[in-house]
Amino acid sequence: MRKNTARWSVLLVVCLLVSLFPNLGTTAQAAGGDESAAVSNAVYAVTQDGSKKLLVNHINVDVDNPQKSDYLAIFTSGTPVTNVAGNSNVVKVKKNNAAIQVDAQGVVLKVAGPTGGLNPTNNAPVAWEPDQTVAIPPGGFIILASDNSWASKNFRKALYHAFQAGDTVFLQHGGAPVTPEYVLNLPSLQVQGAEGATVTTATYNVQGKVLNYKPDAGLSVTVGGTPVAVGADGAFSQTVTLVEGGNTVSVQLLKNAAVLQETELQLVYQKQSGDLIEIEAPPEDITIVVEGPKKPINYIDKDVTSISNIIALFTPEYGSKIQVPAFNVAIQVDKDSKVTKMINPASGNSAPSWVGGELEIPQGGYVVMAQDNSYNSYDIKKYLATKFKVGDLVKLRKNGNVVSVTDLMSGTGAVPRMQLDGLSMFTTADTRTTIAGKITNPTGASLTIGGNTVALQPDGTFQHTAELAAGPNYLDAVLSKNGNELDRKSIVVFSRPSLTSDKQIILWVDQAANAKKFQSSQSVLHFLTQAKEAGVTDIAFDVKGVEGYVSYKQSDLTHRPYVSEMVASDRKGSNPDLDLLELFLQHGHALGLKVHAAFNVFAEGSIAVKDFAVIDQHLDWEERVFRPEDNGAIKRLRESAYGQKGLTGGSGGAAVLFVNPSNDEVRDFQLKTFEEVLKNYNVDGIILDRGRYDNETADFSDLTKAKFETFLQQRSKTLTKWPDDIFRYVDGKRVDGPLLQDWWEFRSGTIASFVEETRDLVDRYSSSKGKKIQTSAYVGAWFESYYLNGVHWGSKNFRYDSRLKFPNDSIYTNEYYQTGYIHALDFLMVGTYYSTTPEIQRYLTLDSIVTNGEVPLYAGMALADLQSPALQREIFQTALGGSNGLMLFDASLANWPIVKASIDNEAYVKDYQIGMSKPGHPSSFIEGSYYNVSRNSGDLNVYNEEFGTSTGANRFGVEVVADATGKVTKIANKTQAISWNWGAPEDNNSAIPAGGMVISALDENGVRTKRQLVANSYNVGDDIRAAALSGYMAYDGKTVSTAYPQIKGHVKLLGAGTDVAVSLNNTAAAVATNGDFTGTVQLQQGSNTVTFAVYVDGMKTNEKSIQLTYTPGSTEEPDDSTSPSTGGGFGPGPSTPSPEPKPVDGGVVLPSTASETTDAQGKPAMKVALDAKAIAQALDALKKQGGAAKEIVVEVPATKPTALVTLSLQDLVKAADSVAGAVLTVKVGDVSYKLPADLLDSAALAARLGAKVDDLQVTLSIEKKSGADAKPVADAIKAEGGEMIGDVYDFRILVQAGSESLEVRDFGNRYVERSIALSGGVPSYATAVVFDPVTGEMTFVPARFKQADGKTIVTIKRTGNSLYAIVAADKAFQDTQGHWAQADIDLLASKLLAKGVTDREFAPDRPITRAEFAALLVRALGLTERQDDASFHDVRSGDWYAQAVAAAAGAGLINGYEDGSFRPNQVISREELAVLAERAAAFVTSQPAKGTASALQPFADASAISDWARNAAAFAVAEGLMNGMSDDAFEPKQQSSRAQAVVILKRLAIQFGLMDR
Prior knowledge:
Immunoglobulin-like, GH, 1557 residues, elongated, nine-stranded mixed sheet, 27 helices, alpha+beta, disordered N terminus, 9 domains, 19% helix, eight-stranded parallel beta barrel
């Protein structure tokens, strides 16, 4: 406390100085904080230097109840109230609000709200943090800022610019510094009532309270200028008289006649016609006011179905009871005016739990029901839910006077009421329908339906069969009594006899959500196979997304970028080497699926993710919008306030960039997009999506204006004021102009003509290709508002009927009808994205009426909203009954087993339990939702590599990644979920490790349960397991006749695990290595609980209890035929003994089983996994064969492009230790790879990966490249004038520890052999080459060619991995003709080892420099050039020879000079050449190269050879690598020529097995 006091003392001194010398800095207040007009109670927040001070508008007041706007509010430590009900220690900071958290020392701890800095284009925050609560620090405070415009208001902006984290802030009152405690005790004014409220009486009761009120402190209150009495607790109340319209009521707090604080209430008095009937709740505090809060009653004894935002009263004259919908609120009041029952009361501070029900209407009492469109936005349902409770007394008022319910009744007795069974709007294939229902209080009532009299039964029930005409039928049910119509209900039925049971199921594959998931042809095939098996018949493949990228390669007319070029972080990553459309067509057609290409027509960019494929090159195409936020200006979308809000992540901003459909260039470009697909691909149809205007605010460009004027001229009309003749804005609301209807018709005609042009284009290609190509569209089902988007997608024969109840029926003129375009389509998909049967039927019927039944209609299903299997089945079947089929949106949300059951109209039963271990809780586990299905809201799923390469999930989930050992390596959004701060979410879409798993959680909106459970349960480094338990359902609820039944089931591991234990009622079951288990339980007669428990490696993953009944003599037995293994077991393999390794010359062939999988790039692969047991068996077999046996051979089928062999690095180390020179040989068809067991430095690799050697896994990969993958190599060979023989192969070694991995490409000084067998013979000059995919360069690599069994075996030796190919390139040079070294030069040039100075010249006699020979030597030896420094001061990294010199130095071939130089441009002497040849020989043989002095005896100048070169010269001569310049002269100092260097290299390569003779 002393420290706090001392700190505040310093701040008080600073504040005092500022108050004494106000001109030290510029004063800046928040808007509304004009200091000259400020009241004396004003509190300011001041910066430490006094340059800025902000007026605080509210002190310790709940600013959200009633809602305040445009303010700075302070909440000090110890405040009795904040804006969080029931917790005055925290403050709620809503999204788009700003706040600072200040500690007891005055230091800003946190700035909440704005995040990501300011956007330079509008100086507004880049993003806003989601809703959050911030704790008030002890002794400190929070300042909260709110306004509705960053640009034009200065509350949030002022706070943001004044204070940042770490700044010091102090408080000022009355020109003097004060502490938060002082502010806490200041008197302040709290006024009840919402600003801007509309009232229906001429009087209004203003209520409030003075906080910290002291009767003897000279405080007083005035309301509307009139002094009012203030109670001892500070409460006050005053009734004011209002005038019709707007009223401003001033409430002031005064001290000794000086104004301390003033609040203004804005009230609107709206005089009602007729009697004002109100319901009144009990007063909140009877000691303050005697009247409670009131609300008008809008309807009495009337069916209010579908009437929004009302309160209705139901008396006994309505009937004996009332059905209350699930989302309404109702109270039952008895004859004594006491609440006896409620439906959907508020639960504390939370919203109701929302369950409907039936309420009786008591005799002498009544029921009041409230319904509105939003519980939080309207104070209607909330009023009933929060202001009343059972036992309260309720008052009814008529024109201000308290009355009884009988005063509001007609007095004529119970009024007949009509209730209809079933739906009021539906589609059927039948030609007749039955309408049934009930009339309550039927005495004297009569009923007609469709003009036909219907008989009523004594109990009021009725049933009528109506004949239906094909098309729309409007049947009015009219209830009358004594000739007076009491009620009328319309039943709208569309009769569509053409509907059959043969339904099409179209699956929409959205580009943004799915493209990146398809990394291989196999993944496309797997996906389409799943869809086909689920019942899908057609694919709507999104080939052009909203961003403008396309999912096809042959964009020869538009040159649109391919989808792999997307830049948005959650959408990029598509495989650039695939043509997705072609793959979908290839595999889809093979499966019998139709594939339609879908286009986002007039969308050309995503503002939400800031990705724009082509629009930035065509800014004139971008829509021009006329919106109220732009103050009358017409702006390009991204320059408008709406667009800027979208670009900065603000809510309510633009998400998609539309282009102008009136622009001829735009239309032509879209048509070309369609055409390049029609021309180049065998599609079954073209789908138009977003073939519309953005919304009613577009397009207002000059181009559109000119076209509209031409349109008007044809109608003899003139545009005089643009855009006011269409509409203008007054106070932000649209005011229609005289040409608005013309405008709607112009826009709709614009879209219709484009659709017709599209149909013409498609028909031309249908004719030229000799097949029917369909034209279709997707539209929203809500036709009644689609005119705002410039679209009439219905029939020209559609005619509006008032019983359709459209909100604006003036649209539908004869001219508007003629803009319908359904005649240009073969079918239509409508977005019936609803989750109730009435809504689905309503819109299917409406859309059938609008289209006049002229084309098949497919109901769009939003899978995101239909995750409950029962709900999905209900909605699917409802939609199938009223349409030609379904369109499922979107593929990324499909849970295939549920989809299949819903289509087949079968109950989905999940037949397994997925569970995960819980670290630190070995006897507990976490139950998940599904495994290996797409994650949806509410799911907690587990994925292993069977699902694919990644989870494909969005950013707002929590994902836990565990490697093949079970170790958690990564957790996405752990911190975000725990703190529940999602301002900066991390990407999900986690890569699924080979042999590992990913746990992925996502809650429903507003729920945090699953994400926080996962985030709190797991940490990086944890050891976890997951498993799926199945088979238990075969026994649940069944009866057996034995007390000791046998129980079977299956455990499927997902990720790591070897030891699986299953118990049944704590008795161990026998578990096979494939996951099947069998056990026995002891039962008592009668019902028994049987509990299955699964432990993986000692960690609990599952527990499931079932009920099993034992009845002696029972003939019923459970069917356990489905319980054995469904695959995905654990352990090394079957329980049968493994075959022994097969001896072969030089080693053993290891028996192995290959499985289909995908490689790291998602390409199809065959994989063999070697375990420790298999390696141990192989080593034992090698030892039995004797010392010559070194090879462990693993054969992988060559049925896929890639072959993978995986094993533990520790097992390789053991092999090297057990058998000297052990080699692991992988054979894939005609290709093999020999990996020395001791090649990899296990300790170094473990250190680089930060792991233990025991945790390292090795994957050896051999991939045959083809198609686009092989093209760069083929191009490089062609550029050299060569021809490729055979295929290109990529050899890789990957070492992995958990999620971390690295590729080993450079083996230092070790050669590794790989061989390729070619059919038949090859030219003598053929060579092996290595291709660098980064530089695109191709160079010689050491290889030997051998003929065997009609094949040429090419054995390649190199000290690294890369892409390899065999090449034939016959080369010669003009200047070597007749030269003594011509044959050798031509040979090495053809081998791509020696290079000419030009394509035609070699310059054989030109001296060769040290750098040139180093490069030749590195190529000849097959060394991997290095990026690192060669440590010579005269070799720079940018020199062409730098990497070769580094490689030569690394291999010990060159040392340089004593001064640290290499002298690269110095001509190399013959004795230096001899030294390099000697060192090269030593490198290849791994043995010192020794010469004999006698070899130099023939040379008279032998003594001139330098001592350091003498042994090398002797070696070179003895081995035939070098000769003398004459018989008796070696000439050691003579410069070497390029020809001499080539000859020596050729001899060296042949001598030491790097090349054939």
